[in-house]
Amino acid sequence: MTAPSIAAAPSIWRSLLNFLLPFRELPARAAERPVAARRSSAQPVAGAFEREVAIRFAHCDPAAIVFYPQYFVIMNGLMEDWFSEGLGVDFADMVSRRRIGIPTVAIECAFSKPSRLGDVVTFGVSVTRVGERSIGIEVQAVVDGELRLRAKQTIVMMSLDTMKSIPIPPDVRANLSRFRSRAASPEVGTQDGASGGAACASEPAAGSARREHLTS
Fold this sequence. Notes:
alpha+beta; two-stranded antiparallel ribbon; globular
């Protein structure tokens, strides 16, 4: 479509076209390489539970790169899979029947390089600290051996009925050691009412920022 015809289109169509135009500039490498080839070159994170995620159109912003909040949505799904498949604790059953949640009380994330539509990103989660009620984890996202993001996160076991922190259940604690990173801290106790932050990057490509969040 030529520039004059775009100008003549209704505003809703102009908005749609302006949103789609940046995607014409996506690197050819993502479209040309087979998915299997892209997956095989990603470097695993030692001691981590891993999941490959294909970057889809819905993950991207008008700049044709992953809109950074979408990383946190993906990481939330990673946590569910880790509990169900890695720790052997059915996440849906834990939440729905046992009424136990795993809210994040602190997260800090550094974005190293943007991910684009068609990338297959390997997300890995490893344990850095185990407390009485909380678990410290690190998440890394890698494409072709290149780090895209690194996040440090603290989750707390919580009763969904009382909204208070509870001791880590034995079946959860039993398998945490399988995913402890080499730099993991010794197990220590924690107190209810942990404070932390949720980190967001002002630029999707690099950097990190932090805001405080308190739990009761």
